[in-house]
Amino acid sequence: MNTDLDEVEAFLHRQIPITVAMGIHLVSYDTESLVLSAPLALNHNHLGTGFAGSLNALATLAGYALLWLELRERPCHVVLRNSSISFRRPVTCDPRAICRRPEASEVEAFHDQFAQKGKARLHLHVTIQEHGALAVAFEGTFVALK
Amino acid sequence: MNTDLDEVEAFLHRQIPITVAMGIHLVSYDTESLVLSAPLALNHNHLGTGFAGSLNALATLAGYALLWLELRERPCHVVLRNSSISFRRPVTCDPRAICRRPEASEVEAFHDQFAQKGKARLHLHVTIQEHGALAVAFEGTFVALK
Question: Of B16, B43, B46, which has the smallest distance from its Cβ to A46's Cβ?
Fold first, then answer.
């Protein structure tokens, strides 16, 4: 499992250059969720708190990474079709984006659709918490294309 | 006017470190719109097209920059409350985010509210076009706080 994580992190750094400048780190991935972090020192705004653009990029990358790990056996492209984000409170520590794995039935339907049509979409929810409180809520529709 | 643009670009680079890595450049600002660009070479994804996270950050920064220029006489903070974005087609050239200045009546209401309450919100629309076609549509609610 750790080799997978290292590979995905290296893939992000190699293929999406801004992830190096952001200091993106793939923390964990299990049946529940995927966690991606980045240091605040590289991703703050003019107020010293998490920059909205960086927090959005971190959440987007958490969704990508979850889908890549989900589809690792299948040659495909993953793209983001649309997303929305709500900033509830300032992020003052190193942000950790948690992408919740959807219900098993949703993931199964996604795999079935991909196998049948060579294209499937999945709606993913990502949150950034701080001291147990919700700081950022992101959701996006990702599309996998054969 | 150019001094203002240079100042805002320098402010972005100094205060929001990821904007340096993104190569953010403030192209123009007039009564119609503000234009912010970034090289694709620094902001591409695993497919060689514009990375969704970078495009979102570019659009967010265009909104910030327009509000900073709008409020330059007044000491205040600007934050993004929420935003949504739709990716219509891949971005294959250096992206240019165009933040449309809202109607004069909206801007006036925003200034009045800020003067009265020390807090005001403005909804901004940002687009990224390519070869005359809409590639990315972003909208966000920004809040200025005294």
Answer: B16
